[in-house]
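Hello Y.,

Per our agreement to keep a running log of every chain we model this quarter, I'm adding this entry. I've kept the format consistent with earlier entries: sequence first, then predicted structure.
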Amino acid sequence: MIRSFFLIFVLLCFSSGVILAQSFIKTADLFKRPENDLRSGQLNIYQDASLDTLINRYILMSKKVYKEKNYYGMTGFRIQIYASSNRNAREESNKARADFINKFPDIVSYPVYQDPGYFKIRVGDFRTRTESTKLFLTISKEFPDSYIVPDIINFPDLNTK
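Predicted structure for the entry above:
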């Protein structure tokens, strides 16, 4: 009997230690300003604690993306116009990208290499699938094998409107 109580006590202590070891970011901490700034006001945020959990998960996911891809970005969509792993895939992907740049000079294209030897060309930075569908209809006339893929995109420039 004493052994079972001791085992339960140890498990409770261990589980509480694991929970406390996780970092937690509050929304109010994200908007902190220096205390010595005379122009700063006070920001009070009243919200459900589950929103802090969601924001914390998003921040942790963004840090993971940065570690994997070595750049900051957000989840979004791109249009993949070329993908191959054959012997001449590198040269063909460069030709497809040059052809795309000639036909659509104002749209950014990104060469992607994935192991084991896949060369891909993806174009555009779209936050939603609906945004990408507008351009996809135009691009698919020139590149019939293209399709929309989820990807990590560059942050949109919010000053261009």
